[in-house]
Design brief:
There is one protein chain. The longest helix is centred in the first third of the chain and has 21 residues. The chain folds into three domains: 102 residues, Arc Repressor Mutant, subunit A (Orthogonal Bundle); 81 residues, SH3 type barrels, CATH 2.30.30; 78 residues, 2-Layer Sandwich (Alpha-Beta Plaits). Helix content is 40%, strand content 25%. It contains ten helices and eleven strands. The strands form three sheets. Strands 6-5-4-3-7 form a five-stranded antiparallel beta sheet, covered by helices on one side. This is WYL domain-containing protein. InterPro entries: CBASS_pafABC_assoc_protein, WCX_dom, WYL_dom.
Length: 291
Amino acid sequence: MSQTERVFYILDLLLEKGFFTRKEVAEHFGVSIKQVYRDKEYLMTRCSLGFGNLDIIYDRKRNVLTVTEESRRRLENWAVEKALDAVKSGEDGNLPEAVLRQSRLILYKSYAREPFSSSVYFTIISAIERKKKVRMVYNRRESISEPLRIINYGEIYYFVSYCSDGKIRTYKMSKVEKAEITGLDASFSDMKRLERLYSSYGIYLSDREEREYVIRFKSWAADAVVSQIWKEDQILQRLPDGSVLLRIRVADDTELLSRILFYGEDADVIAPDDFKERYINKCRLMAQRYE
């Protein structure tokens, strides 16, 4: 039996009952206790799986090996992500049995897919790998840019590209009519700038400074938003009247506006003032269509 099989078996035990013993693993695979010890050390110090190294500790009361709460949370989050990936792809892949059982109980439905040309996709991927610029036709306009990353956001594929004017823009893969690799070498090297953009809100990347936006949600919207994470550094506050106040720092508010509009009359923009005015005008225009 390979180490991968033994490691996956240990992960199954941790996911299903929260602990394992070296003896049960050794007997299951017919290996020595020392071998299981080495497997445990691998999970603790050299683990290449997505959850990283685990903090495995000895529980004296139960005489078992378990993991810290922080490690368990990382392991469980990884298991959920891998189960969803297996459902989306339709392929089980090389995963622990506990994860595969989860995937078989999930029905995945995409709310809005946007098909795109496979040739365009592979052209963009190849340009990124080869560090080349591409010439593309996007919304009937031709341009040359430097693809940096492909992003799957809400089941819609985008890519971010460094343009000749020095700006980084986001493009929908489905709107690219044609793309070809040029002989021009890529020139973008400011990875810190790219990392900063990736941490911004939503799919629209921006070099502008972030501002604080404050939105109050009522009724069903409050109950929905209070358990959501729009951005990692957001601040959520439940008010005495049951409403929820969301504070979020955003550079580009394009997507934020459309998301707030989804909640209709149960969302109120508090700040900033210019964004509040745009929100009011958008609501007014929608109402006028039905007058």
